[in-house]
Design brief:
- The chain is mainly alpha-helical.
- It has one domain.
- Helices cover 75% and strands 0% of the residues.
- Helix 1 runs antiparallel to helix 3, helix 3 packs across helix 4 and helix 3 crosses helix 5.
- Keywords: Membrane, Transmembrane, Transmembrane helix.
- InterPro entries: VanZ-like.
- This is VanZ family protein.
- Pfam families: VanZ.
């Protein structure tokens, strides 16, 4: 993929988060037992904030390409995810039996930071291995 199309996965991830956030508290409570069959340790959907924003940050890093291999790109990625998380919490204020929660935003940021740092680490290790292989030949 080239150019702006590289951000298509991030856009799809944002749409999935928006749709999930549009579910009322009752709807989520009715789905939880089904999810617990596959993930019995899950007592609520709070850990999904880490997962959703981890994936969002990975897709944004994909869109950013080589920029995600820099500290500036890493911080930009987390900033974009946290700003989207803010809009998501605001959106939830209009959904029945849902409310904005600062802890959710913290969890969003933690998931995004973990993914961004992982991407940065992988790029750096990859560059380091390539440079060692190049000089060893």
């Amino acid at each position: 993929m080239k150019g702006k199309w590289r951000y298509a996965p991030a856009l799809l991830c944002m749409i999935a988060i928006f749709i999930s956030s549009s579910r009322s508290g009752d709807q989520l409570d009715s789905v939880l037992p089904w999810v617990q069959r596959w993930l019995p340790f899950l007592s609520d959907f709070n850990p999904m904030h880490y997962v959703a924003y981890f994936v969002l940050a990975l897709t944004i890093a994909y869109g950013m390409g080589r920029l995600s291999a820099t500290w500036k790109g890493c911080l930009l990625n987390v900033l974009v995810c946290v700003l989207y998380g803010l809009t998501d919490e605001w959106h939830q204020s209009f959904v029945p039996m849902r409310s904005p929660d600062p802890l959710d935003l913290l969890h969003d940021g933690m998931g995004a930071a973990a993914a961004s740092l992982l991407v940065l680490l992988i790029w750096r290790l990859s560059d380091w291995r390539r440079s060692r292989n190049y000089t060893a030949s």
